[in-house]
Amino acid sequence: MLDSEYFRTGLQTDVDALGGKAIVELQLANGRVQRVRSVVSIHQGYVTLEVYRNQAGETLAAGWYEKERDAHPSQETERTVAPYEAITSVRITPVRPGGGSAVGFNAP
What are the residues whose beta carbons fall under 8 Å from the beta carbon of 91, sequence distance 6 or more? Predict the structure, then answer.
């Protein structure tokens, strides 16, 4: 099971290992996938995330994680609170040069 330590240090380490920019997606136990823009806060039993809205089945073409992203959420995002036991996996995909829009992510 993932825990607070993963979101404090492990996620950034994994993204850095892929070149510093990546698409970060959480698979939840209910089957839903959340594309993450930023980690808002980390707690003992849960994490608060800024995630991109998925409207009418729409999927975002690309995204990226960048630690130094501006702190202002866009209208394309919303906050979600996920207990660690509800997160079944974290998928981190490297961003390829010239590959899609600048959908971003920040770590605290």
Answer: 23, 24, 25, 26, 27
